[in-house]
Design a protein that fits this description.
The chain has a 6-stranded mixed sheet with strand order 1-2-3-4-6-5. It has helices at about 5-10, 55-70, 80-85, 100-105; strands spanning about 15-20, 25-35, 40-45, 75-80, 90-95, 120-125. The chain has one domain (about 5-125): Aminopeptidase. The chain has 4 helices and 6 strands.
Length: about 120
Amino acid sequence: MLYRPTQDIYDHLRDFFVYERDGDIGGITALHVWGTELAEIRSLAVREECRGAGVGRLLIEACMEEARTLGVKKVFALTYRAAFFEKLGFQTLDKLKLPHKIWGDCLKCSRFPNCDETAVIREVG
């Protein structure tokens, strides 16, 4: 997961969705809108004891519904778990087709330019 300074998290707090059950946080994710054409699912994390219970799927669905409400056409993510996203209808994509991401956040990453994440994308529909 890309490190984000605390102020960056505060600046984008409204982007986040939190899965909470009985007062415990089970997972989080964020939807960052790049424009009407494209949004990004960021910072997807599910507590280990909640994995396999559909928490990640619910968080992704919340992001997709928000994208639909906002009129965004496609949603992408960079992930180490491409198979999880593929089960939810995402397809792999060459990262170079995401110039907003590459020239925005990726330049700040310690792994740039040797990123080993997989880009996935899905139409909102």
